[in-house]
Amino acid sequence: MAVMQIAILAYPGMTALDAIGPYEMLRGLPDAELRFVWHEPGPIVTDSGVLVLGATHSFEETAAPDIILVGGSIPATMSTAADEGALNWLRRAHQTTTWTTSVCSGSLILGAAGILRGKDATCHWAGQRVLSTFGANPQRDKRIVRDGKVITAAGVSAGLDLGLWLVGEIAGRARAEATQLCIEYDPRPPFDTGHMSKASARNKADAARMMTGMISARDAGAELVAGSKVMWTNVIDRVRSRSAAKP
Amino acid sequence: MAVMQIAILAYPGMTALDAIGPYEMLRGLPDAELRFVWHEPGPIVTDSGVLVLGATHSFEETAAPDIILVGGSIPATMSTAADEGALNWLRRAHQTTTWTTSVCSGSLILGAAGILRGKDATCHWAGQRVLSTFGANPQRDKRIVRDGKVITAAGVSAGLDLGLWLVGEIAGRARAEATQLCIEYDPRPPFDTGHMSKASARNKADAARMMTGMISARDAGAELVAGSKVMWTNVIDRVRSRSAAKP
């Protein structure tokens, strides 16, 4: 059996759990090679500013992964979605993947790469509106959305469900069940406000304030500029593809 | 309000999700300073051999954290439980913590430091028997066990529940509920074999085989040697404390 290469995008400002949840599920797969990819190998500071993860391989070294996983970020989703090197890698690698996947606002990065056009997809609840601007059909209430080989998951912790689901698809139900037992994934959250449909108005206001508080004024500015660029590029691409289609 | 220092033990061979689950819950706390501690700052290779995390501070720089969090490991729990420098730091720091916590087999490291003697505690299901040799009272079916300021959680993914629970204790229910919404922690595992009581005989055999497969022969040997040393030290300490107590 050939080794299955799993490439996790490791970018500055990423939310660690988005990547580490699925990583922990997938790493037990037989004959899998996991790697953390970015422009070049080296340390990546995550969005807390204190946790550093290592990118192990460059885009160039990772031309044809079997699986791509893109996690989200609070302060750097749009700046990554505006990173042409990252987008070009995603576009090229996606052509030959078995699965192209995202967690949380990682789907906006897939969207900016044009991978979600016409596809059912999901995202962190805060990003659903932006998702539709990339031509995706947001599936607001689903934890994991599959459209062909593209699998998108809801916010942060949904990566654990995505990862476990993928283990089942790749290695069969028995392996996934054993993985779930190894990781003792029998969640018992002490509260029950993890979905917008279960949250109070106060929970929603508090959560929005918390997320705003997690992004510096400088990063917020950079995200706004990058987001505008991504949106403009997206609109212009659509206009150009329409005019190119005319006789 | 004083800044609350949260020290997460970062050791070679650690299981990343054990630490990153609670980290992602705790990092949104107001006035909290998170750090990853080890003998010295620098890169730490986790148990997959491909994910590298950064230790940001040394034990020496972290004399009096408010919270300690110790995660588990497949190949290096016992070698860490035999590391006198780590144990001495845990013993000293524990004296002044507000909370001393563990996830998965991290409780065995707390146990080796003598922190669990006479305490209710839990662990990954595979470590429950060892837990009792440290004088703890294993609580096999609980996801999170509190005994005074010592909080121990079940295997790997239980760290998310531990982290969220701690946010509630530290910053109140409203903050915890908002954190849960931010992280969209509304788990929907695609299978239901995450607890020993829900797993089939085959699931259990498969999981045991998977975990054995995740540890190299060399690491398994080192763990056996370290484990024996830890157990012996533990027994001898008890004998010595009994004879010291005699008139």
From TrEMBL, chains A, B:
Concerning InterPro entries, the annotation shows: Class_I_gatase-like, DJ-1/PfpI, INH-QAR
**An example molecular function term from Gene Ontology annotations:** cyclohexyl-isocyanide hydratase activity
Q: Where is the DJ-1/PfpI domain?
A: 5-166
**What are the protein's UniProt keywords?**
Lyase
What's this protein's name?
Answer: Isonitrile hydratase
Q: Which Pfam families does the record associate with it? A: DJ-1_PfpI
> In Gene Ontology terms, what is a biological process of this protein?
regulation of DNA-templated transcription
Q: EC number(s) in its UniProt entry?
A: 4.2.1.103
The gene behind this protein is inhA_2
* Gene3D superfamilies per the UniProt record, alphabetical: 3.40.50.880
Q: Does the keyword Magnesium apply?
A: no
